[in-house]
Design a protein that fits this description.
Length: 389
């Protein structure tokens, strides 16, 4: 395991990313754990440190919640989403399956939070000294959802990775279950396993993160545009501030921190353990009662575009962040990346779950080279130690 630890130490020693924590589970037990780097105050990262996992939330929360609802018969993959979300009426091709496969026709992303920031009745959500009450947060969340429902479809049937599709899936989980997304995930997915992860409801401060070591991911609110997004919105002049424990993604922030595409905070150990639980569920553990559904999700979904599962990514290409060895068996690997520099990969043949969490965005969203270099080196080194050739 020395080379895997050295990869983390070298990257964080260079400050790109500033902090990292990693863990792996196999056959129901931890087989690797390490944490490197520090927060801006110099406090060292440990295995108990908590990270904003960004789009890894899609696997930890939304995809898994949909799988449970499908297994219970509350959701059918090929019914129109309008059955649960009437605002999608007239777009019958938009189904839970098409949303999970990123083939619904919804575009990749839109800065819906800009409408929240500019509207007088919700602007307090983004004001540095704003004190939005519950009604203001509710209006902000509604404004994001209304903007989503009004978004025209662009290329139905073609696979285009879409945050917006998972915002819709989060709303679908709430409509089909009758519970808030965070409550449903906590009660059905996480609490039974005692997992150290969850959403943070911004109406209630930092909630369960109080007193925890949480790594910050940026210094402005809203965050500065990612590469290629500078023409879509502007960041108001403001003093730099760290807001660890408040979701990095601004659309999720405008929704109060609870969204289908982002918002989960976790330790690396909790993410790896949850991934291990998904592998066990797929193989018949029946903790969630959705093993057969997960087997369908953890298979390539037909669509025009790059290969994906239903709600899961797959390693592709010579520069995959999963490295050259994860998924090299006949069953392959499935998982997800997160914008803040996080990832979860499940190697089905080796029954191995690997989580890598970082806060690579802290010093700027343009900083991508460090995480692109770290991911494959770390994963290859870990596999070389755990499964020698």
């Amino acid at each position: 395991m020395v080379e895997a630890r050295e990869a983390l130490a070298h990257a964080t020693g260079e400050g790109d990313p500033p902090a990292a924590s990693a863990a792996a589970w196999r056959d129901g037990a931890p087989v690797f754990e390490d944490a490197r780097g520090a927060d801006p105050a110099g406090a060292a990262v440990t295995a108990a440190s908590v990270f904003d996992v960004a789009s890894v939330s899609k696997v930890l929360a939304t995809t898994s919640a949909v799988a449970v609802l499908v297994a219970r018969g509350a959701v059918r993959l090929d019914d129109p989403v309008a059955r649960w979300l009437p605002a999608f009426g007239g777009r019958d091709a938009v189904t839970p399956r098409s949303l999970l496969a990123h083939a619904s026709g919804l575009p990749a992303w839109r800065p819906f939070f800009a409408e929240v920031m500019e509207a007088p009745d919700t602007a307090a959500v983004f004001e540095p000294d704003g004190r939005p009450d519950d009604a203001t947060w509710d209006r902000a969340r509604r404004r994001v959802l209304d903007a989503l429902f009004a978004t025209p479809l662009e290329t139905p049937g073609r696979r285009v990775y879409s945050d917006l599709g998972f915002v819709a899936l989060g709303a679908l989980v709430e409509a089909a279950s009758g519970a808030r997304l965070d409550d449903f995930c906590r009660e059905v997915l996480w609490a039974p396993l005692g997992l150290d992860l969850g959403y943070v409801d911004l109406r209630r401060g930092t909630g369960w993160l109080e007193g925890r070591h949480v790594l910050p991911t940026g210094r402005t609110r809203p965050r500065e545009p990612a590469p290629g997004q500078a023409h879509l919105y502007a960041v108001p002049a403001q003093p730099a501030r760290l807001d660890a424990g408040r979701v990095d993604d601004d659309n999720a922030f405008a929704m109060g921190g609870v969204a289908g595409h982002a918002g989960v905070f976790a330790t690396a150990g909790a993410v790896a353990r949850f991934g291990g639980m998904l592998l066990e569920e797929r193989e018949g553990a029946n903790r969630l009662g959705c093993g057969e559904v997960l087997r369908r999700f953890l298979a390539i979904a037909p669509a025009d575009g790059p290969p994906r599962g239903l709600g899961f990514d797959v390693p592709t290409g010579p520069r995959s962040g999963a490295g050259t060895r994860l998924g090299d068996g006949p069953l392959g690997a499935f998982g997800h990346l997160g914008f803040t520099g996080c990832s979860l990969w499940l190697d089905l043949d080796r029954r191995l779950s690997v989580a890598l969490l970082t806060n690579r965005t802290l010093e700027g969203r343009h900083r991508v080279e460090g995480i692109r270099a770290l991911r494959p080196v770390f994963h290859d080194a870990l596999l070389d130690a755990l499964a020698p050739r």
